[in-house]
UniProtKB/TrEMBL annotation, chains A, B:
Residues 9-111 form the HTH hxlR-type domain. The lineage of its organism: Bacteria, Pseudomonadati, Bacteroidota, Flavobacteriia, Flavobacteriales. Keywords: DNA-binding, Transcription, Transcription regulation. GO terms for molecular function: DNA binding. Signal peptide: none annotated. This is HxlR family transcriptional regulator. InterPro entries: HTH_HxlR, WH-like_DNA-bd_sf, WH_DNA-bd_sf. It holds the Pfam family HxlR. PROSITE patterns: HTH_HXLR. The keyword Cytoplasm does not apply. The keyword DNA-binding applies. Transmembrane segments: none annotated.
Length: 115, 115
DNA sequence: GTAAGTACTATCCTTTTTGTAACAGATAGC
DNA sequence: GCTATCTGTTACAAAAAGGATAGTACTTAC
């Protein structure tokens, strides 16, 4: 498990690239993170994530294509749409938790370094 | 721990953003992943990661500024430079491992889905 | 002096991403 | 009819990122 053969490294690098292909970019992980607190409407997501509708629409389509987010149209007064994390998206939990922890620790480190 | 208050969610989202600020983008995590197999020279990194020298130079500077990579000039025949992960960069291990696992599983899932 | 290797930097250009603003279709309230 | 809300889309523009190609500087080898 601790061996660093050429093959195992190439495999690891490929896996990282694969992951970045799906959830890389500026918004994907942020959207998923925001959606972890529950289903959200389009404008709601736009506000909470601070993302313009144009980009949001594109990002949500890509997330949906990759099976990470589901889109449900609700038959309400003004028609509304609910975006929600899929079961499969939970497989990203480790990634998200690790990034949350790191970001939190890193910020602490930076702040302490300044003071 | 399982509460989803407004504050805890905002905190989590901020942490994700912080992490992305440091290791987001197309190359940072790939470079770190490549460097996990040991120190590398500039051209070596360029070849292994498939990144052009111009971008590589910029990315390495940013990684160095954030304390994730160290740069050592070696007094060899033709002068060489060794790039190496810092101690602090190991704090990203959980993130990298989680992403490696996910990328690997996701690829398996996709391949199976096609066959 | 010529070629080759290392580590970049500079220049130019293309692609991708992101943002802004406006607009469309549907429905409800006034 | 006018306005407002919700969900997007479209058109246009700006910015960021990325790639290709050379070129610089230094050193060793021939």
């Amino acid at each position: 498990m601790k061996e660093h053969t050429i093959e195992s490294c190439a495999k690891a690098n490929l896996a990282i690239r694969d992951t970045l292909d799906i959830v890389g970019g500026k918004w994907k992980l942020i959207l998923i993170s925001v959606l972890r607190s529950g289903k959200k409407g389009f404008n709601e997501l736009s506000r909470e994530a601070g993302i313009s509708p144009r980009i949001l629409s594109k990002e949500l389509q890509e997330l949906e294509m990759n099976g990470l987010v589901s889109r449900k149209v609700c038959d309400t007064k003004p028609i509304t749409v609910q975006y929600e994390l899929t079961e499969y998206s939970h497989s990203l939990n480790d990634v998200l938790v690790a990034m949350e922890k790191w970001g939190y620790q890193h910020r602490k480190r930076i702040v302490q370094g300044i003071e």
